[in-house]
Structure formats: C-alpha cells, structure tokens
Amino acid sequence: MSAIIISGKELAQEKRQNMKLQTEELKQKGMVPGLAVILVGEDPASQSYVRAKERACKEIGVHSELDEVSVSITEEELLQKIDELNKADHIHGILVQLPLPDHISEEKVIEAIDPAKDVDGFHPINIGRMMIGQEAFLPCTPFGIVEMIKSKNIELQGKHVVVIGRSNIVGKPVGQLLLNEHATVTYCHSRTKDMSDYTKKADILVVAVGRPLMINADHMKEGAVVIDVGVNRNEEGKLVGDVDFKSAKEKASYITPVPGGVGPMTITMLLHNTILSAERHLKEEN
To answer: What is the tally of helices (H) and strands (E) in the chain?
Structure first.
C-alpha cells in the first residue's frame, strides 16, 4: 500500500481560482481587498515568503503593499507604522513578518495589530475566539492543515490526533482547531517521554517540530493520516520535512509532501482571511 498524496499545491490553486471570483465580485461593489506586509531586516527565508505572498496577491487581484524596513528600526517606530495601517481604510489585512530582531517584542507587535485586520490570526483576541469556537481569523498554517484533511473527506470526529510540537504558530492552534472538529487531541513535545507510544496510536499525525526526518514508518500505525509541517534543508541543501516521506508513505493512508504540501496552503489561507476582512468591512460600510 502506498499513501494517497494530499497536495497542498493543487488544493491551493483550486481555492485561489474561487478567490479570484470573490475578489472580482468585491471590486464590482467598489471594494479592493488590501494586504500590507512589513518586513524587518533581510532574512532570506522571510524575504522569500514575502515575495511568494506578493505573487499570490497579484494572481488573485488583491492589492498588496510591502514596507521593507531596516533591522535597526526601533520598536516605537514599528508600532507607529502598525498604527498608521490600522487607520488606513484601503488596508484590510496587516502582517508583520516574523521573526523580528531581538530588540523588538513580538508580543507587543502582534498585540498592536487591530484584531479586525489580523489576517495572520495571531492576536490574543483571535486566538481566544478560536479557542471557544467563535468567529475569528484563524492562524493560516493550522487553518490550511484542516482544509487539507477535509479536502479528502477524512473523518475527524472521534479520531485520535497526535500533534508533535507546541508552538503558538502551528502546534497549539492546530490541536485546538481539530478539537473544534470533535477529534481527540494529544500533544507531544521535546519533554514527552516514550513519544512513539503516542504516535503509534494516532489516526492522524501532525508533525511540526522543525527536525529533519524525525518521524518514520516505525513511529506510526498502519493507515495513519500524516501531515508534515516541517521545512528543513538536509546536508545537500535539499528541502525535507520532519517526516521520512519515503518510509512513511508505505504505511500511511494519506500523506503531505515537502515541498508542495502545507506551505502553499499557508499563503492561500492568508489571502482567504484578507478577502474575508474586506467583505466584513464592506458589510460595516453598508
């Protein structure tokens, strides 16, 4: 048995076609969805993400603005920029690309963004709403993961999900979203003892630790659904996930590849949130 591939690339393209139509409809009503991105410094990975976001905006007709600022910007100056974007009527989504330099508090920056424009879904208000199942902007990577699972009509209700990793960006929120779908969720992390005792019981395994090829077929049960969130470079400079794809795909029922899996869905859900924000603004205006 070889696993069915869940291609984030294909699903993202499908969703972006629909988003193009949504954007067209909004434009006919006089509303152009707008996304503003602030990039601090010259981190190559961050630059590459930001360029991909710009291309995606162009592809579906979302207005995008990029403010590239020096790594020496003060926290106060950055917060001032966010404040200006909070007040800008033509901007519906604000994203400050993480990580930030050490002298700037990520917490303060995230909290400075208007929750109604927090299309990354990181503001404590959006996280809190998500926790209790209220309407909120959902964090893009976890949101994309849930959409990928649902795209294959994989049953979530009553299934045992094991999430490896507990970051605020992926691990914690993806577990909560799957709990909201009535799955039973177990979190594993660097302090978990005998981790394979848990992973071998998982119907769905979400791996988000940033350690290349950490999980292989021996850690899984037959027919598990495997979602690999990791993006790592091996010694040859090739992109690999946290899961050993080659061995895992022989045992899994469904699996996401790296690259072309979760990555393309993250940007797609960011655009989804930006369009949703523009739609909400339009409703408020009318």
So the answer is: 10, 11
pLDDT (tens digit per residue) in 13-23: 999 999 999 99
Q: How far apart are CA 252 and CA 74, in angstroms?
A: 48
Pairing of strands 204-207, 93-96: unpaired
Burial group, residue 59, by CB count within 10 angstroms (0-12, 13-18, 19+): middle
Is 55 annotated for ligand binding? no
3 DSSP 8-state letter: P
Domains and CATH numbers, the chain: 30-114 (3.40.50.10860), 140-263 (3.40.50.720)
Catalogue the E-assigned strands of 71-183: 93-96, 160-164
pLDDT in the model for residue 104: 98
| Active centre residues (catalytic) | 53, 97, 120
Element (H, E) at 188: strand 184-188
Q: What share of the chain is helix, strand, coil (3-state, %, to 5)?
A: 45, 15, 40
State residue 237's pLDDT score.
84
The annotation status of 167 as a binding-site residue, yes or no, is yes
Output the CA–CA distances (angstroms, integers) from residue 83 to 64, 111, 278, in the order listed: 18, 11, 18
pLDDT at 146 over 90: yes
Residue 166 is labelled as binding a ligand: yes
